[in-house]
Amino acid sequence: MSGIALVRKPGPRLADGLLSYVQREPVDPGLATRQHDAYVAALADAGWRPVYAEPADDLPDAPFVEDTVVISGRLAVLTRPGAEERRPEVASVASVVRGLGLKAVRITGSGTLDGGDVLQVGPTVYVGRSARTNDEAISQLAALLPERRVVPVDLDGVLHLKSAVTALPDGTLIGLAAHVNLSGLLEPAEEAGAHVVPLGGDRVLMAASAPRTAAALEKRGLKVITVDISEFEKLEGCVTCLSVLIP
Ligand SMILES: CN(C)C(=N)NCCC[C@H](N)C(=O)O
């Protein structure tokens, strides 16, 4: 067993989720539920025990749990999401992380932070300056994680840092240089190829919408597991957003 995968089932209002950079498209709630089940099953197959946050049927974006908490060791930093309508998602995630024995602390005051803007690579914590995450929250995060190197990153034209860049198991950054002020990125063949969830060892989880990137990563020696998350992609979600892995 690698650890715990914090997840939350999509609710009946999923299709009303927030959109920033894409046009609204019809979302099939039944298909979304089946895709979410398959996503969780892929994590479980890789050794991550699913722990579900309480359903939040009135909160359309609640399955994107990544945005509500940042885990560093045994510390859980509860976020203060930049979109006010997403703030009620945090309370139920706080109960879960406390129940798991983690120490919970919070982003407070005028700080706003979405977990999707936080990319942890070894000792470094990259944090996107986005419409959702501000400098006040980045300073608070740096103070809460004194042992880590917190690096603010400017973004252009994307919702979150992890909409544009993630990291392979060896720490190589894979992402879209046009949207993120970071150098030395491995450029994926498709946009969705920028989204990789390291599952432990040489295994990574990716969306089925990035087959050419998946093939390229297999060539690099990675074992790529793919899941179809089309209904969540319509809401600007990606494979990282749907879980928080707690080693
Ligand atoms: C890395 N990404 C993209 C995330 N962690 N979150 C996606 C949230 C999408 C939601 N509709 C919203 O606009 O908040």
UniProtKB/TrEMBL annotation:
Q: List the keywords (alphabetical).
A: Hydrolase
The protein's superkingdom reads Bacteria
User: Which GO molecular function annotation, any one, does this entry have?
Assistant: amino acid binding
Q: Where is the active site?
A: H160 (proton donor), C241 (nucleophile)
Q: Does the keyword Hydrolase apply?
A: yes
Biological process, per Gene Ontology: arginine metabolic process; citrulline metabolic process; positive regulation of nitric oxide biosynthetic process
Binding-site residues for substrate, renumbered to this chain: L19, D61, E66, D67, R86, R132, L235
Q: Which family does it belong to?
A: Belongs to the DDAH family.
What this protein is called in its record is N(G),N(G)-dimethylarginine dimethylaminohydrolase
What's the encoding gene here?
A: ddaH
